[in-house]
Write a structure and sequence with these properties.
Length: about 100
């Protein structure tokens, strides 16, 4: 659901809310829309909101932002970022963090 955020404030509120209720040792598993691997096919319409080739409008992350957020949250990346390109229509990235005790 994070890629349906209206902007940075809503995205960060949803992410921080989920992180806050996660127990120490717990995993945050996110599959969210990104620009990774399709940077040239996305059209920015303001901030991190983009028009995608599939005709949808979404809030998109990139590897740099996910790295910054991993540090900010104090999480540990449990698996390298993995991105699936969906037939040239959108990119879906998997981000898995563990909350330290």
């Amino acid at each position: 659901m994070l890629h349906f955020a209206n902007g940075d404030d809503q995205f960060l509120a949803m992410l921080r809310g989920a992180w806050k209720v996660l127990k120490p040792g717990g995993l945050l598993f996110c599959r969210l829309a990104s620009t990774i691997g399709m940077e040239q096919q996305m059209r920015c319409i303001g901030g991190r909101r983009f028009w995608l080739p599939d005709g949808s409008e979404r809030y998109l992350v990139d590897a740099s932002l996910l790295g910054e957020l991993t540090e900010e949250l104090g999480g540990r990346l449990m698996d390298p970022l993995k991105t699936t390109l969906v037939q040239g229509q959108r990119a879906m990235t998997t981000w898995v963090l563990q909350k330290d005790a």
